[in-house]
Amino acid sequence: MTNEIMKSETVSENNETFKEKFFTPNGRIGRMTFFSRSILLLLLEFITLFVAGSAAILSLALGSDPTPSTPIWFDIVTAIVMFGALVPQYCLNSKRLHDIGKDETLAKIFLGVSILISVINSGFPSIAESMPYMIISGISMLGFYMYLLFMKGEEVTNEYGAAK
Description:
By secondary structure, this protein is an all-alpha fold. It is built from seven helices and no strands. The protein has one domain (29-150). Helix 3 (31-62) packs antiparallel against helix 4.
């Protein structure tokens, strides 16, 4: 009986839909799952921005504007991609915090900081290019991810689900 339950839990865990993997903050994920899903999300962002950037460069090269500048559509695509990635990353962060035994308060704070950083990066280039801003934002982002990546999860079932 126990083996049947274990098999059904494993099968259902492996059959998570894309929505359950990236767009629900409920449940728990381990360090390697967090790492691999975060890398996948980062690659999707990179590929999208690379294609859009290539198209923008091509349009600048083929254009006849004497003072070329980044097309407005590229800024819009970049903003959509950056803000669009915040939701799945928030969900991944929440699940990882649940595995550690914490609620998603830190994920909400980090989401707010990420939105603030995105707004500053896109709307205030003089601030975004300053060295103190780059150091503070970089260290805060890296520190949070290192915490999520290296903090060991609880080995027992907690209020967020079974250990992974």
